[in-house]
User: What shape does this take?
Amino acid sequence: MADPTELTSEGAGAGVAEVDVCSLEIERKYDVIPAVICSMCCLFGIIYCFFGYRCFKAVMFLSGLIFGSVIIFLLCHKEHVLDTQLSVEASAGIGLGIGLLCGLVTMLVRSVGLFMTGLLLGLLLALAALLVTHQFYTPTTVWVPLGALLGSGMVFAVLTLQWQKLFTMISTAVFGAAIMTVCADYFVEMLVLTKHVYECLRLTTGPPLCWYSWVIMGIWPALSLVGVLVQWKLTDDSFSHTEVVMSRRQKRVQLMRIREKDAKKRQQAGGQEELPAKSSGQTNGHRHVC
Assistant: This one.
């Protein structure tokens, strides 16, 4: 005779297995600070996606700030620094300080900013490809996603240095759309999609995504395409980032050249006025002698 406790446990397990996770209601508990940060990031994402090339220097600064802050924060928070585990606040402060320095470098040195912009584009495209392929195939070693991320990032960084305007618009549109997608993921399903992407990078299997997670994922390519089209219409041939990033020294040199041209014109005009005065004086002297 079978044990009734086993029967009840088996029945409970079957009942739990039959429950559709996607039909369950998501418990949304928003904290004030993460919600405010997410709202600000959504605003930055809109500026990135639709006005990235117009706000060239601001985008270069924000790219360096975000990239440097995130990398340093993860290193300080996950790793031991000086044999001590730093708190979240200390890691965030160190990451923000170094991120500000990275932002100033990417803003002032145009080639570094363009390289960083192309690197972000390559990382995002490789991440999207890994997320799609993870549904069908899971690599056995972490070096596969790492190599794909680094290889794609370097390729698009070089392409951005070669074709600056085109890839800057594509990179800012894709990055801004990714930020808005993460913000939508936070407000709709509390970063379920973001956690799934992180698990894909770690090569760990998790629960499958629900249909609304794929809908949120579809926001990314749709907004990217719209952002590229909007930027292409806003930035015609008369606008170029090379004019925006003109240094003060070049402006001073141009101003000095303009002043030199004006001085030469005044000297030529003054010389032409002196010639008639001398000729009239000579004629008066001849008349007096006669």
